[in-house]
Design a protein that fits this description.
Oligomer: single chain
Mean pLDDT: 86
Strand order of the largest sheet: 4-3-2-1-7-6-5
Structural class: alpha+beta
Strand content: 15-25%
Shape: flat
Number of helices: 16
């Protein structure tokens, strides 16, 4: 289902009122007060009970369906798990409920917001939205080419959306007569506000009131790019405008824009950010970021200074994780520092190394991602050192797009691996030992985006163990405090995030004590034992389970009587004799 821009704006996405609901156990009609808000329905005995826990809740998603019942006032709400039979007090009320529910389902079907963890907002923040003389302060988010607005920052589903593609975006001169349009709402706005207006195709305009010039410039640039008209307007920084020109030329390798001084390496220090940022504080951070990158690039990596480079990279990338607005900025800075840089010495290589660390953590947004991919393609060449880093970065970009951004800054191990050898030569550039309960271990390779599930698939193939769902085995880490604790890892967590968070916890618990000497210990062992799992059990699984049970008995975690303890000891003696032979 495709929604036209703001097609639902005239229609409410919320409703409340009485409906009769058929009981699920006892098939009788019960009158309940229903509240539809934020993509879900809750029902109570009466309106006065809304401050209490609801009697029930219905989560709406794009798989839900609405069907009319036999009576003129009855309908069915069909969800994945259950069908709800509902009756309105009149045919008109029935039509109101059906119309609002259909609008909700259309928004969810057309909206990527339900997968916002994958589709990151390009820009977001509190704005005052004005339309038809009515104004409201809303949390706004631009995702792709759609502008969403919510009542609260934590809401799952938007109040509405505006398709920006092919719309006209402009800044309003506050001295013009159009001010009367939005002053007509009866609410005066501060003269310090900046105003943008979006003119969707064949729709009335929407005004956005923004508090600061930096925020205004940021929204104006990103909305204009999303509308597809950035090449015809002077919005954004000069660097951003040049990327827009290359985008219009589809990255033509013969374009002279590639050699424009603004896009290329310069010995001159950066005096202002390369991208549009929404606050002076972030603009200041962007220049600090530039200085950190310069220190990393221009000091030769040697054994005595490797901790210095590691600290610079970790701090710079942590800033970008904390302030996602700077993620486009650091990519632009690194690309500029590697573009047409002469001579090709260690500084150029170290800049590519920092870029290689960066692409596994997060990716730039919108036209900046396109620019990064085209730039990497231009430099990819297995015959040169720089070209090999470019190919590695291409692989890493694809993996990050597949598995999503990281949560934590790179670990010492990750940075050291990139600095000490070109990662191009290894499809899995990192490795770590995984310990088993029989005092053996298996070294397993992984990359910056490898999840625990992917890691275990590799481990199981090499160790002769079935999938965790069949074997009951799970991956555990030790506790950085040194206590006798273990932490079971979930399948969707990334291995590099696990290592980084463990390393950071160790540093906070023991400042300076174990710097670079202790690493996380991974153990693969049985977590769940069911009778059904014994069928198809491999020899390796059975052996490891014997050692694990023995260890639990010895350390008092598995209470047994004397006879059973002697039986376990005898079994272990047999295993050890067989192993020696």
């Amino acid at each position: 289902i495709t929604l036209s821009p703001e097609s639902h704006c005239a229609e409410p996405l919320e409703k409340s009122g009485y409906l009769l609901k058929m009981g699920s156990q006892v098939k009788v009609w019960k009158r309940r007060w229903f509240v539809l808000r934020n993509g879900e329905i809750m029902y109570y005995k009466s309106p006065s009970d809304v401050i209490r826990k609801p009697q029930g809740q219905i989560d709406l998603n794009s798989s839900c369906r609405i069907a009319r019942g036999e009576g003129a006032q009855t309908f069915q709400l069909i969800t994945e798990k259950k069908t709800f039979y509902l009756t309105a007090d009149s045919p008109n009320i029935l039509e109101e409920w059906i119309r609002v529910l259909q609008n909700i389902l259309k928004v969810q079907a057309a909206s990527p917001v339900v997968t916002e963890t994958v589709a990151k907002p390009i820009v977001r923040g509190w704005l005052t939205k004005v339309k038809h003389g009515h104004s409201k302060l809303l949390w706004c988010s631009l995702i792709g080419k759609v502008f969403y607005y919510y009542r609260n920052q934590d809401d799952k589903f938007p109040l509405g959306q505006l398709r920006v593609r092919e719309a006209r975006v402009a800044e309003v001169d506050r001295s013009c007569d159009s001010d009367e349009d939005y002053e007509a709402g009866g609410r005066g706005f501060l003269s310090s506000h900046f105003t943008l207006v979006i003119y969707p195709k064949e729709q009335s305009p929407t005004y956005l009131l923004i508090g600061t010039k930096q925020e205004k410039d940021t929204w104006l640039y990103h909305l204009t790019v999303a509308a597809g008209s950035s090449s015809n307007s002077k919005v954004g920084t000069e660097y951003e405008q040049l990327i827009g020109k290359l985008l219009d030329q589809e990255g033509d390798i013969e374009s002279p824009v590639w050699k424009h001084p603004v896009l290329c390496y310069s010995k001159e220090a950066l005096l202002s950010p390369l991208t549009t940022l929404p606050s002076e504080a972030l603009q200041t951070e962007a220049l600090k970021l530039y200085k950190s990158c310069q220190l990393f690039i221009n000091v030769l990596v040697e054994s005595p200074s490797i901790d210095y480079h590691m600290s610079l990279a970790q701090n710079a990338l942590q800033v970008c994780l904390t302030h996602p607005e700077l993620q486009n900025e650091i990519y632009c800075q690194l690309i500029k520092q590697t573009s047409h840089r002469q001579p090709q010495n260690y500084s150029l290589i170290q800049c590519w190394q920092l870029l290689s660390v960066c692409v596994a953590l997060f990716l730039p947004q919108h036209s900046f991602l396109w620019y990064l991919r085209v730039y990497l393609q231009r430099h990819a060449d297995s015959r040169t050192e720089v070209g090999k880093y470019a190919i590695y970065c291409q692989r890493s970009v694809a993996r990050t797009l597949q598995n999503g951004d990281r949560e934590a800054k790179p670990s010492r191990m990750e940075i050291m691996s990139i600095l000490l050898r070109n990662p191009y030569h290894h499809s899995l550039p990192f490795s770590i030992p995984v310990h088993f309960m029989n005092y053996t271990y298996q070294v397993v390779g992984f990359d910056g985006s490898t999840t625990v599930d992917e890691f275990l698939n590799t481990l199981n193939q090499e160790a002769g163990i079935r999938k965790p769902a069949l074997s009951g085995f799970a991956l555990f880490t030790d506790d950085p405090s040194g206590k006798d604790l273990e932490h079971c890892l979930q399948g969707n967590v990334k291995i590099c995030d696990v290592i980084s968070k463990w390393e950071q916890a160790l540093k906070e618990l023991h400042p300076g004590k174990y710097e670079g000497t202790r690493i996380v210990r991974l153990t693969y062992k049985s977590r769940l034992c069911f009778r059904a799992q014994a069928k198809g059990e491999t020899e390796r699984e059975r052996l490891l389970l014997v050692y694990q049970v023995n260890d639990d008995v010895v350390h008092g975690r598995f209470p047994v009587n004397k006879e059973l303890a002697l039986e376990v000891a005898a079994l272990m003696a047999q295993v050890l004799v067989c192993w020696v032979i």
